[in-house]
Specification:
This protein is mainly α. Helices cover 62% and strands 0% of the residues. The longest helix is centred in the middle third of the chain and has 29 residues.
């Protein structure tokens, strides 16, 4: 395994950094696992693997390989292959991940006059189109909708292993009658398409 000095790594980046960023920008489809910085980190790992792989194949040191055309072709192939591998993983799981939203959004039901979308952590860095979509959904929630969602987010035991809501447990935790919970859920189901049991 080759250990690179800082100067050697800088030399590699001088030649391939623009390509690495270009490839990182081209990976998309699931913002949860394909944020630009994550993509670049994955491409950097592929770059290091290409250096070690080339060393195993040829026995050349880094200083020797960085000047050859064969290494240039080899490392570019490794970088593009890493892009394809990650992209294929995202594409394969896209039917499962395309309608998911972050569970880390903070909901503050005590603040009066502010919409739920205003309480999404880090919304200033979000794509304006995505933020608008969140806003349209969240702002349509009634106080009862918001209260029930807060109870669900604070009490994971109201969700079964199969991912369905346990109505009786939810009634105990929310202190709402089952009939009212079912009415709220019917309203929410149109927006979030969630199953119950």
């Amino acid at each position: 395994m080759i250990t690179l000095t800082e100067t050697q790594w800088e030399l590699y980046l001088k030649k391939y950094k623009n390509l690495m960023w270009k490839i990182s920008h081209m990976i998309s489809g699931d913002p949860t696992i394909s944020a630009l910085e994550d993509n670049y980190a994955d491409i950097m790992l592929a770059a290091l693997e290409s250096i070690n792989g080339f060393n195993k194949k040829t026995g050349m040191s880094f200083d020797e390989m960085i000047t050859t055309k064969y290494f240039d072709q080899y490392t570019k192939t490794c970088l593009w292959t890493a892009k394809a591998r990650k992209g294929n993983g995202i594409k394969k799981n896209y039917p499962l991940t395309k309608k998911k939203v972050s569970l880390s959004a903070e909901i503050d039901t005590s603040s009066s006059g502010s919409s739920l979308s205003d309480n999404i952590k880090g919304n200033e860095s979000m794509n304006p189109e995505i933020l608008l979509a969140y806003s349209e959904v969240f702002d349509s929630f009634s106080d009862d909708d918001t209260k029930l969602l807060k109870v669900i987010s604070d009490n994971p035991e109201v969700i079964s292993f199969s991912g369905k809501l346990k109505i009786k447990t939810l009634a105990k935790k929310s202190r709402l009658p089952i009939r009212k919970i079912e009415k709220i859920l019917n309203n929410l189901r149109k927006k979030v398409n969630y199953d119950t049991e």
